[in-house]
Design brief:
With 333 residues, the protein is an alpha/beta fold. It has a single domain, classed as TIM Barrel (Alpha-Beta Barrel), CATH 3.20.20.70. The protein has a twelve-stranded mixed sheet. A hairpin with a 7-residue loop joins strand 11 and strand 12. The model has no long low-confidence stretch (mean pLDDT 91). The structure holds S-adenosylmethionine (SAM) and iron/sulfur cluster. The site of S-adenosylmethionine (SAM) has 19 residues, from strand 3, strand 5 and helix 11.
Length: 333
């Protein structure tokens, strides 16, 4: 067993203690802001095995990472996810093991995930109207997702958070309904500004842009909000209502840059370590685990060497040609 090294830190003095791990680029939905309708997914030969995902995660934990979020693509479409969760759940030093899911398979998996050691869960939910939900996800069935949310609550997850991407003219009239849905179930909800990741033709991102401030004002008219300094270690800024335990979060990559507080890196399922959501700076960890299987020192050194690549901030632009050509399902949201 190697001795723990100094914690991860970038050239701007930011500590990295949070890893978002994409376990697949595949998904059973085709959300209009995340993917093109006709997506090409990676051949299996190019993706990390579960063992490699585990080895890389444990190297991060030895280097001081305290939180891992499993994401994708849709993490629950990957075979044997429970096995990975169980192994990661036992890593010494890992304080939080979370999952972001579209909820379509939670009905089946919520309970075993909890038993395997998952500590928190984020579920994406952009609409409470079945037809609209289908349009936004292209293939999703709202009733299955609602059953998944119930299953997560029944399984006893302490904090469940919904994530909603809000698009003008598509679901911005449902903001208060979504808040009420969360309040009724005593769960949290975050509203996300759409990011220009990948080229999409389905809508014009500039026209669909709905700022966190517009959303906050809509909610404020119905439920007075008080800013809170709570953090869950991610980019959400939280607000509280006086008469509910639910927190309302805003993730505002355009209108409220959060880069100075960034404590995260992402690993794509191709083994590319992305130092920033909105930049292409990356390091190839797959070649390290392919060439030197089981060599923890090499892996830790490759991770340490990548830290100076972390850029100071992202620059998202709302024009029609995204600077970042990878889609969110590749990035690991
Ligand atoms: N499939 C899972 C899900 O949908 O929750 C996990 C992966 S998904 C890429 C993670 C989160 O990214 C979701 O909440 C989704 O709404 C969000 N997302 C996807 N594309 C986005 C974009 N272009 N801008 C902002 N958020 C996006
Ligand atoms: Fe799939 Fe999640 Fe992307 Fe929707 S946001 S297409 S559910 S990966």
């Amino acid at each position: 067993m190697t001795e723990p090294t100094l914690p991860l830190q970038d050239d701007f003095g930011r500590r990295v203690d949070y890893l978002r791990l994409s376990v697949t680029d595949r998904c059973d939905f085709r959300c209009v802001y995340c993917m093109a309708e006709d997506m090409q997914f990676l051949p299996r030969s190019q993706i990390l095995s579960l063992e490699q995902l585990y080895d890389i995660s444990s190297a991060f934990v030895r280097l001081g990472v305290k939180k891992i979020r499993l994401t994708g693509g849709e993490p629950l479409v990957r075979n044997n996810m429970l096995q990975l969760v169980e192994q990661l759940g036992q890593l010494d030093g890992l304080e939080q093991l979370h999952l972001t899911t579209n909820g379509s398979r939670l009905d089946k998996f919520a309970k075993p995930l909890k038993a395997a050691g998952l500590s928190g869960i984020n579920i994406s939910l952009d609409s409470l109207q079945p037809e609209r939900f289908k349009q936004l996800t292209r293939t999703g069935d709202l009733h299955k997702v609602l059953a998944g949310i119930d299953a997560a609550r029944d399984a006893g997850f302490k904090r469940i958070k919904l994530n909603a991407v809000v698009l003008k003219g598509r679901n911005d009239d449902e903001v208060v309904d979504l808040v009420e849905f969360a309040r009724d179930r005593e769960i949290d909800i975050s509203f996300i500004e759409e990011m220009p990741l990948g080229q999409i033709d389905e809508h014009n991102r500039a026209l669909a842009f709905c700022s966190s401030e517009e959303i906050r004002q809509q909610i404020q008219q119905r439920y007075p909000l008080t800013a809170s300094d709570e953090t869950t270690g991610g980019p959400s800024r939280y607000y509280r209502m006086t008469d509910s335990t639910s927190r309302i979060g805003f993730i505002s990559p355009h209108s409220h840059n959060f880069c100075h507080l960034c404590n995260r890196v992402r690993l794509t399922v191709e083994g590319r370590l992305l130092l920033c959501l909105g930049n292409e700076h990356s390091a190839d960890l797959k070649s390290v685990v392919d060439q030197f299987p089981g060599n923890q020192k090499r892996l830790e050194q490759a991770i340490l060497d990548a830290m100076p690549l972390k850029p100071e901030r992202h620059h998202f632009d709302l024009d029609d040609s995204p600077q970042i050509v990878r889609f969110m399902n590749m990035t690991g949201g």
